[in-house]
Design goal:
Layout: H1 4-9, H2 11-18, H3 26-66, H4 69-106, E1 125-130, H5 143-149, E2 153-154, H6 155-161, E3 168-169, H7 171-190, E4 194-195, E5 201-203, H8 204-210, E6 222-223, E7 228-230, H9 235-239, E8 245-248, E9 254-263, E10 282-292, H10 297-315, E11 319-323, E12 335-343, E13 348-359, H11 361-366, E14 368-371, E15 377-379, E16 381-389, H12 390-400, E17 402-403, E18 406-408, H13 414-417, E19 421-422
Parallel strand pairs: 4-9, 8-14
Antiparallel strand pairs: 1-11, 2-3, 5-7, 6-7, 9-10, 10-16, 11-12, 12-13, 13-16, 14-15, 17-18, 18-19
Helix pairs in contact: 3-4, 5-12
Length: 423
C-alpha cells in the first residue's frame, strides 16, 4: 500500500510512473489526497472538541464544589452536546479512514524508474541470456509425453483424485521432485537464508498484508467456514511473520527460505501452452525472502538475481532473464526480474522464477518497521523470489535432458536422487 504522504508530496511523479502500468491514476490519487485532507481536518476538530470537553469536565467538578450549581448544570448540558458531537466526528473519522484505506488498497505500487513502459509480456526486456539450447532428435517428446512413457507423473490419476491441475508424481518422478526441493533449500541455506517450515493456510489479515487481498482474491482457494486461504506462495506466510513488528536497524537484513506447496485457482486456457506441468492448481516451490534497509534493497535484489542464476548454471539449463514492463508488473512490485527456461521440445520459454523488490509497499500494509539511528520508526523494504518453482524446472529437465536411452539427471542432482537416469 502506498503512503498517502508520498502521493501528496509527489503527486505528478506518482501519476506519471503509474501510467507505465497503463493506469490513469489521477482520479484515484486526487481522491486519496482529498480523503486524507478530510481525515486530518476531522482529526484536528475532534482533538479540539475533546480538549474542550475535558476542560469543561474539570470545571464542572470545581463549580459543584464551590456551590455554583446552576453554572455547573449549564456546563453539564454543554458537555452532553459536546459528547454527541464527538461521537459524530469519531464516526465520520472512522468512515473517512476506512474509505481512504479501501482506496489505497486499489492503487498498485509505483514502478521503479528502470521499469520499461509496455502493455503485455511482449514488451518485457531481455537483460540476460545463458546456455546453449540442446539439439534434440526429431522424435523428441514434450514432458507430458515423457512423464507417461516413463511412468513418473500421472496427470489422469490426479484428475481422478481431485481434478485437472493436480498431478501425481510416482517413483523416480517423486524422487526427482524431492531432490529438487532439497537441493534448492541447501543452496539457499548455504547462501545465508534461514529455513522455515510455514503454514499452508493463512488468515485474511495475512492476505491483505502481502497484497494478495483484495487484488487476487479470485485466484486463491478459500476455506469459507474458517475464513482461511490456501497459500499461493510461501511469500505470504513468511512475510507475515513480521506483521506489526518493529525491528532494530541492527537486525537487518533478514533472509528466509522455505518450501511449501502452492495453490492457485486460475487454470488458464486450453492448449499445449498450459498442458502438463506448464500450469497447475497445486505445485511445489522454494521461496527466498529478504527484509532490508531501504538503502540496501536494490543491492539485495541484484544478489538474489545472481543467486538464482547460480542455481540454473549448476543445473545447466538454458535460461534468460527479463525485466518486466509496467503492463506485466505485479500489483505489489516496484521492479521484477523473471527467469525463463527454454523448453526445447515445446520450442518456447517457460517462466520459472520471479525476483521482486516491493520497496515499502508491503511493509506499509504490514506495519513492518525498524528503528533507525535517530530512534525513529522507518518502513522496511521487502523482497522475494522463487528459488525455484518446481513444475517448469522439472519440465525443462525432462525435455532438455532426454536421450535415446532415457532422461539423464543433471550432475548436481545425482547425489540427491541416488540415480543418474530415468529409463
Amino acid at each position: 500500500m502506498l503512503q498517502v504522504a508520498y502521493l501528496r508530496d509527489h503527486k505528478e511523479e506518482a501519476i506519471a510512473q503509474l501510467a507505465k502500468r497503463n493506469i490513469e491514476a489521477r482520479e484515484m490519487v486526487d481522491n486519496a489526497i482529498s480523503l486524507d485532507e478530510e481525515r486530518r481536518i476531522t482529526q484536528t476538530e475532534l482533538d479540539s472538541i475533546k480538549a474542550e470537553a475535558n476542560k469543561i469536565s474539570k470545571d464542572i467538578g470545581g463549580l459543584f464544589k464551590s456551590g455554583a450549581i446552576d453554572k455547573a448544570n449549564a456546563l453539564k448540558a454543554k458537555s452532553a452536546d459536546l459528547k454527541e458531537t464527538i461521537k459524530q466526528l469519531e464516526n465520520r473519522l472512522n468512515t473517512t479512514k476506512q474509505d481512504l484505506e479501501n482506496l489505497l488498497y486499489k492503487i498498485p505500487n509505483i514502478p521503479h524508474e528502470l521499469v520499461p513502459a509496455g502493455n503485455t509480456e511482449d514488451d518485457n526486456e531481455v537483460v540476460f541470456e545463458h546456455g546453449d539450447i540442446p539439439k534434440l532428435p526429431g522424435d523428441a517428446l514434450p514432458h507430458w509425453e515423457l512423464a507417461k512413457k516413463y511412468d513418473i507423473i500421472d496427470f489422469e490419476l490426479g484428475n481422478k483424485i481431485t481434478g485437472s491441475g493436480f498431478p501425481v508424481y510416482k517413483g523416480k518422478g517423486a524422487k526427482l521432485q524431492r531432490a529438487l526441493i532439497t537441493y534448492f533449500l541447501d543452496k539457499n541455506t548455504e547462501a545465508g537464508y534461514t529455513e522455515y517450515q510455514l503454514p499452508h493456510l493463512v488468515n485474511e489479515a495475512s492476505g491483505f498484508g502481502t497484497g494478495q487481498l483484495p487484488d487476487k482474491e479470485g485466484q486463491m482457494y478459500h476455506v469459507s467456514e474458517d475464513n482461511l486461504y490456501l497459500i499461493p506462495t510461501a511469500e505470504v506466510p513468511a512475510t507475515n511473520i513480521f506483521r506489526d513488528t518493529i525491528l532494530n536497524e541492527t537486525d537487518l537484513p533478514l533472509k528466509l527460505t522455505g518450501y511449501t506447496p502452492c495453490f492457485r485457482r486460475e487454470a488458464g486456457s486450453y492448449g499445449a501452452h498450459v498442458r502438463g506441468l506448464n500450469r497447475l492448481h497445486q505445485f511445489d516451490k522454494v521461496e527466498i525472502l529478504r527484509i532490508e534497509h531501504p538503502n540496501q534493497s536494490y543491492e539485495a535484489l541484484k544478489d538474489m538475481v545472481e543467486h538464482v542464476k547460480g542455481i540454473l548454471n549448476e543445473l545447466k539449463l538454458p535460461y534468460r532473464i527479463l525485466r518486466l514492463c509496467g503492463g506485466d508488473l505485479g500489483f505489489t512490485s516496484a521492479l521484477t526480474y523473471d527467469f525463463e527456461v527454454f523448453s526445447t521440445a515445446q520450442n518456447r520459454w517457460l517462466e520459472i522464477s520471479s525476483v521482486s523488490n516491493f520497496e515499502t509497499f508491503q511493509a506499509n500494509r504490514l506495519k513492518l518497521r525498524f528503528k533507525n539511528k535517530d530512534a525513529k520508526n522507518e518502513l522496511c523494504h521487502t523482497l522475494n523470489g522463487s528459488s525455484l518453482a518446481l513444475p517448469r524446472v522439472l519440465a525443462g529437465i525432462l525435455e532438455n535432458y532426454q536421450t535415446e536411452d532415457g532422461i539423464a539427471i543433471p550432475e548436481v542432482l545425482i547425489p540427491y536422487t541416488g540415480f543418474s537416469h530415468i529409463n
